[in-house]
Amino acid sequence: MKTMLELITTEMEAAFEKAGYDKELAKVTLSNRPDLCEYQCNGAMAGAKKYKKAPFMIAEDVAVYLKESSYFETVEVVKPGFINLKLAPQSVADYLNQMSETEKLGVEEAEEPKTIMIDYGGPNVAKPLHVGHLRSAIIGESVKRITRFKGNKVIGDIHLGDWGYQMGLIITELKKRKPELPYFDENFTGEYPAEAPFTIGELEEIYPTASSYAKEDEEYRKEALHATYLLQNGHRGYRAVWNHIMNVSVTDLKKNYERLNVEFDLWKGEADAQKYIPDMVQMLKEEGYARYDEGALVVDVQEESDKKEVPPCMILKSDGAALYDTTDLATLVQREEDYQPDEVIYVVDKRQELHFTQVFRCAKKTGIVSPNTRLEFLGFGTMNGKDGKPFKTREGGVMRLENLIREINDEMYKKIMDNRTVEEEEAKKTARIVGLAAIKYGDLSNQAGKDYIFDVDRFTSFEGNTGPYILYTIVRIKSILAKYKENGGSAEKLSIRPSGNVYEKALMLQVLKFNDVFEAVCEETAPHKLCAYIYEIANEFNKFYHETKILSEEDEEKRSGYIALLGLTKRVLETCIDLLGFEAPERM
């Protein structure tokens, strides 16, 4: 179904044309002064010059025809030429009832669905997830859900860092510790053990130890680089160790991402792109795209319109080694071959913008992706502590993600138990649900590209613009609906009625904005706008709740109308938080 803004705009266009003016002037916007009106059109000002007529007179001409429309309760012309509109309560109720009857609350799915790949997560294997991995996972998951809700075919790819120098370091350190393992015996021809020679805990200790040692010992570093080379060139024993590293790491990563309610459709990594590199490099040479610069193979991506220098995209180093540019381009080759995506969205740290500018331009210039394939860089800012610096532990180290989640859950558990309204086990389960909402909403309510302060005290508060406040509102609505049912009421086939007071209408107007808001969120890839919207709904609901007798209303028609409105409000809120990647408990 069309959004309310589209329906009002159609009415406005018809009125402008009936009054003898161009319908292009009939742009309607939400009012930024809700105390004066709900919607507004300023087109009369733009038409004054064209028609050599005072804007107030143009607006009055148009208003005559708008007053015939059943959509509006009032149409007011305000100098110098604004047309202020208030919706008729009946038209609002009719629209909300139509929303209620549709599966997706009236959202129109894409007429031509696209295949969209979202590259997010991006952890390195053999390393624990830390807070630096949080934003990519949270933002990417929400963008995936939002894009899928619009009816597109969406594929989320974690794109693991699984093929670099860290693998050579782990192999070297493992060889140093357990030289007797068959992986390091060049004469071994049997089957390698099915069980890994390390646990995830041991693996996470091996890498930093090896990394530190390589910085101090040049011979050790060279050995690790050589191990990396052998692995990447098919060394049988090292490939077996690599498979163990992958199995142990991915199992652990899946557990941690599950705690964040983040799911990937693909668990591909840099290693999967390796087989595409030789043919890609050959093509770049043969087609004349690549040139040698001081021994390195590069592709120029500078454009005439650039105000700053954009360095060439480096394909191979002077020693023939591949780089991130190479792997990312080869991954695009793989994605084109396997999925032919219409769009690829990269959810990564904004400090990588230059790298992706180079990769995108190179991919377009060389035909790795078609001219019609959209490549989008969704760069996010850093998550900082209260001191404004990147978020750390109290000891000053990088905080593991599981520890952050535990800290938030413990804080939520204390607050829930302070109320003493639920049993201990239920409190723990609720704390996990609300804790995740606190983390995700705390992140997503900020514009992705901006840095933000991760404030545990504020994010876990049940008051203000927080995840717990949104969930508390949903739980309150659930409680009212449950009591209505307990008292013999049936929520089946109830209709929303025209508003009876200003608080009810304010809530109704917020709820009917869902489609308009969702379209903007999709178009701008902006989950923060969804957060702002549900915060407004929560506020309007709580005003309505405090100012209106709902269950004690004696007029059954009014009471059932309230219940129908609350049922739709709950659906909208629950749909929105699902798109953001969290859920609401039954009780809090």
TrEMBL record:
SMART domains: Arg_tRNA_synt_N (SM01016), DALR_1 (SM00836). GO terms for molecular function: arginine-tRNA ligase activity; ATP binding. Residues 470-588 form the DALR anticodon binding domain. Residues 2-87 form the Arginyl tRNA synthetase N-terminal domain. It catalyses: tRNA(Arg) + L-arginine + ATP = L-arginyl-tRNA(Arg) + AMP + diphosphate. The keyword Nucleotide-binding applies. Keywords: Aminoacyl-tRNA synthetase, ATP-binding, Cytoplasm, Ligase, Nucleotide-binding, Protein biosynthesis. The keyword Phosphoprotein does not apply. A motif ('HIGH' region) lies at residues 123-133. Its EC number is 6.1.1.19. InterPro entries: aa-tRNA-synth_I_CS, Arg-tRNA-ligase, Arg-tRNA-synth_N, Arg-tRNA-synth_N_sf, ArgRS_core, DALR_anticod-bd, Rossmann-like_a/b/a_fold, tRNAsynth_Ia_anticodon-bd. It is found in: Cytoplasm. It comes from the Bacteria. One of its GO terms (biological process) is arginyl-tRNA aminoacylation. GO terms for cellular component: cytoplasm. Coiled coil: none annotated. Belongs to the class-I aminoacyl-tRNA synthetase family. Monomer. This is Arginine--tRNA ligase. It comes from [Ruminococcus] torques CAG:61.
